């Protein structure tokens, strides 16, 4: 299978063979093109493409290249997880993929935190159902917005601050970004555990571009899994392909 994880900022395209995932491309989503996808489709002419996209306008590229080999992820389809949510159509495909991988590889109840353009928290409850989550501005988005909306504040490099009491503007911004973001993550995990009725530790898995910076020093994070979303896309793809094959056989 070809696994396509199309995010607002970055697109990852991977090959999955015998449950092993290998990354083929990691490119800015704005640079997606027919020529790139045609090259991938020609190199793997018999592979199905499982499309997990939160950018609808680029879906047509995949649909026109992979044709009947395309399997878009849609919450109305049987994806392999129960959805306990008032309006499943509101849930991003990547969030469902994270939840399915979370339940399959780490058990439940559990929390997945994905540090992308937005930072999302997705929760699988005691019954193994996706039950909702949190959406917060991503770390890069917050940093850029602070620079854009002020006259004097620069864009700072995101790295580990030296101390909490900063002695320069850039370091003060870095403290606010990194230490402040960690505080948000820890507080939200505690509130989620409280609402789930979990007095003890539950699995919390981080993924995404800023996962190491924010979570690498947090004991409450069990693991950083940069393939979490792709693992979920693989599981969904297997379910969708099996379902289509059964439909063809019945016809």
Automatic annotation (TrEMBL):
Q: So, what pathway does this thing act in? A: Cofactor biosynthesis; coenzyme A biosynthesis; CoA from (R)-pantothenate: step 1/5
Q: Which reaction does it catalyse?
A: (R)-pantothenate + ATP = (R)-4'-phosphopantothenate + ADP + H(+)
Q: Which GO terms describe its molecular function?
A: ATP binding; metal ion binding; pantothenate kinase activity
Enzyme Commission number(s) from the entry: 2.7.1.33
Any idea which positions bind substrate? 85, 92-95, 169
Query: Per the annotation, how and in what number is the cofactor bound?
Result: A monovalent cation. Ammonium or potassium.
Q: Which residues of the sequence carry a binding annotation for ATP?
A: 5-12, 117
Q: Which catalytic residues are annotated?
A: 94
Per the UniProt entry, what are the Gene Ontology biological process annotations, in alphabetical order?
A: coenzyme A biosynthetic process
Enzyme class, broadest EC rank: transferase
**Cellular location(s):** Cytoplasm
Cofactor(s) for this UniProt protein: NH4(+); K(+)
Q: What is the recorded function of this protein according to its Swiss-Prot or TrEMBL entry?
A: Catalyzes the phosphorylation of pantothenate (Pan), the first step in CoA biosynthesis.
Q: Which family does it belong to?
A: Belongs to the type III pantothenate kinase family.
* Protein name according to UniProt: Type III pantothenate kinase
Q: What is the lineage of its organism?
A: Bacteria, Pseudomonadati, Verrucomicrobiota, Methylacidiphilae, Methylacidiphilales
């Amino acid at each position: 299978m070809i696994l396509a994880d199309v995010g607002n900022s970055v697109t990852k395209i991977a090959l999955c063979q015998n449950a092993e995932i290998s990354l083929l491309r990691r490119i800015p989503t704005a640079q997606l093109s027919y020529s790139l996808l045609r090259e991938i489709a020609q190199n793997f002419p018999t592979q199905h493409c499982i499309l997990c996209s939160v950018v609808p306008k680029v879906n047509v590229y995949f649909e026109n290249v992979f044709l009947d080999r395309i399997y878009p992820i849609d919450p109305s389809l049987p994806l392999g997880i129960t959805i306990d949510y008032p309006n499943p159509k509101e849930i991003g495909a990547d969030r469902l993929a994270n939840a399915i991988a979370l339940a399959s590889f780490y058990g439940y109840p559990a929390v997945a935190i994905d540090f992308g353009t937005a930072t999302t928290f997705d929760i699988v409850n005691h019954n193994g159902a996706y039950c909702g989550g949190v959406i917060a501005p991503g770390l890069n988005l917050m940093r850029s917005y602070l620079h854009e909306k002020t006259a004097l504040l620069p864009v700072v490099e995101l790295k580990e601050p030296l101390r909490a009491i900063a002695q320069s503007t850039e370091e003060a911004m870095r403290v606010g970004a990194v230490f402040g973001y960690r505080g948000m993550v820890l507080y939200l995990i505690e509130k989620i555990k409280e609402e789930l009725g979990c007095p003890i530790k539950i699995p919390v898995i981080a993924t995404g571009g800023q996962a190491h910076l924010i979570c690498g020093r947090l004991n409450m994070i069990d693991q950083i899994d940069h393939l979490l979303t792709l693992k979920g896309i693989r599981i969904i793809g297997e379910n969708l392909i099996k379902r289509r094959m059964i439909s063809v056989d019945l016809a």
